[in-house]
Specification:
The complex is a heterodimer of chains A (346) and B (320). Chain A is mainly α. Helix content of chain A is 72%, strand content 4%. Chain A has 16 helices and six strands. In chain A, strands 1-2 form a two-stranded antiparallel ribbon. A two-stranded antiparallel ribbon of chain A has the order 3-6. A two-stranded antiparallel sheet of chain A has the order 4-5. In chain A, a hairpin with a 2-residue loop joins strand 1 (37-39) and strand 2. In chain A, 48% of the residues are buried. Chain B has 320 residues and is α/β, with parallel strands linked by helices. Chain B has eleven helices and twelve strands. Chain B has helices at residues 2-24, 38-53, 67-80, 96-104, 131-146, 163-176, 194-207, 222-234, 252-259, 274-287, 308-315, and strands spanning 27-32, 57-62, 84-87, 109-112, 125-128, 151-157, 182-189, 216-219, 244-249, 265-268, 294-296, 301-303. Chain B is 47% helix and 18% strand. In chain B, the strands form two sheets. Chain B has a six-stranded parallel sheet, sandwiched between helices. Chain B has a six-stranded mixed sheet with strand order 7-6-8-9-10-12, sandwiched between helices. The chains are: A mainly alpha (346), B alpha/beta (320). Chain A binds chain B through residues 30, 39-40, 45-46, 49, 53, 148-150, 152, 163, 235, 238-241, 243, 245-247, 288, 291-292, 294, 296-298, 300, and chain B through 35-38, 41, 157, 160-161, 186-189, 191, 193-195, 198-200, 202-204, 206-207, 223, 226-227, 230, 234, 236, 253, 319-320.
Chain lengths: 346, 320
Amino acid sequence: MPDMILARLKRLAPQLIALALVLAANGLVSPNFFDLTWANGRLYGSLIDVLNRGAPVALLAIGMTLVIATKGIDLSVGATMAICGAVAASLVAEGQPLAVALVAALGVGLLCGLWNGFLVAILQLQPIVATLILMVAGRGIAQLVTEGVILTFNDPGFAFLGSGNLLGLPTPVILWLAVALIVGVIVRRSALGLLVEAIGVNRRASALAGVKTRFLVISVYLVSGLCAAVAGLIVTADIRGADANNAGLWLELDAILAVVVGGTSLLGGRFSILASLIGAMIIQSINTGILLAGFPPEFNLIIKAGIIVAILALQSPALGSLWAFLRPAPRSPTPAAPDKKELVAR
Amino acid sequence: MKLRRLAVLSAAFATLAATTVAASAITVGFSQIGSESGWRAAETTVTRQEAEKRGIDLKFADAQQKQENQIKAIRSFIAQGVDAILVAPVVATGWDAVLEEAKDADIPVVLLDRTVDSDKSLYLTAVTSDLVHEGKVAGEWLAKDVGDKPCNVVELQGTTGSSPAIDRKKGFEEGIAGHDNIKITRSQTGDFTRTKGKEVMESFLRAEDGGKNICAVYAHNDDMAVGAIQAIKEAGLKPGTDIKVVSIDAVPDIFLAMEAGEANATVELTPNMAGPAFDALKAYMDNGTEPPKWIQTESKLYTQSDDPKAVYEAKKDLGY
């Protein structure tokens, strides 16, 4: 068991180190970054802000990880967020009960996922093209729902999803942790995760081996749509209004970035939801750090890009082999190697 | 002799016909960019209302954010022989040829809300707001409101590099110039959206000792101000009293906030660009008065004492 944890940690090491470095840098630019205070029944502090503001990207990253593990990609999640937020806001504004609005929004999210899954799994379109359709059309659909205005509402129950507290934390934090836990348990405590990886490595071979590839591919897009729906509900509840133009705009790119920073390959296969979530937190830590630092906004994107490049470069295999090449040769020929083998054997 | 009488008669008829047409219905073509924002939708609504008020027959063309659609629309207006054309140009360049065609057809063109880089002789006039002036009005209001007390202002900028963001920042700085008690302590982009406005305001509050060091927030548009107001409330402070809120645009929702005492002032970017344009066109057609090449719309300041509820009611159905 300890070995498993050690192997886990080794897999997550680059992400954890990157996160620690970014957080340390934030501590430097903003001295009270790590301060936590308790007020009005919840924790306050920049770290909590990171967890809270990172919620949409974290949620999207959960679904995106599974999609990418099947060698797919889902560009439509930002637009799906906008549609689901618009649906929920318009129903609540019409005076429908909150439960109806939430169920409808989640249902629309699943519908978006089903559409993508149908295009990818049944019509065999390339995922990037298939999901691009909804990415472009989705915002138009959301605009139709809101009739082109920012649709505001005054339902405290719905607003609670975006700005309330639960167990001493902002509700969005609890929501994304819960979704991550549920999805994580389902894919890792069953064979589903392995089957998803198999599809990503070789779809035809896994189909021949008896894996229901069509069903599984549709399912991962459904999960992605559902995660996007929850994210859409959170951003809509947060500002108490559905902004069809801007809700979730470009977040699909941040979600893909989170997955990549988390070390999951865009070529499919092995994945780690936990690593993607750490990736999402790295991205949000950078965003929050930039806001706290007080640099002129012209530098925002340059700083973000620079840090991301550095993190990705650290993970690149080419740099790894360069390091192995440049590393001073061990004094005695092979003392380290057997140790390692021993460890694995144990 | 007979021939001459006929000529006089027909000339008289022609004049009569021309005057009746001019008096009864002027036809104006309006090429709108599209409906990318609530303000744009409101501009379309107000243009229709202003045309109706004046008995003008308005032909409307939505370009869906594409210049080629606008050029097509203008060409079709010329072909239909309209009396004048209004254009809200989506970009500044590439209008020379089509404006030339309108000029050759003797159809005056009025630019709405944005300008183009073509020669000034190619259009009658441009009706736009002055973005720098808007920022200045906001800055002057704050300077007057705080008086001699020290005041640290945080600024929510528009999208980095966009002309409203640059000009409204510049104008505000001009407005508070000479008041050394007012300082902009933090300035960050909120991308003109509520979500980003809220997130950035949260970080400002965090960085400035929970907001104790902030006396006012200046937002480049009302949407960011609405987001900032929520962030201030969630931090346990009172927007409008603990932290003053001043912004630009005057969209309906900010008047609700003002009514609730949560916003202090907004500067209107009027959606009524067509009214002044129609007036200039009428003067030009009736007695050939050449309007100035730039007609600046009023940047009206609204505060809590301007009956925000009534303004909200008047504005809410304009399509914002």
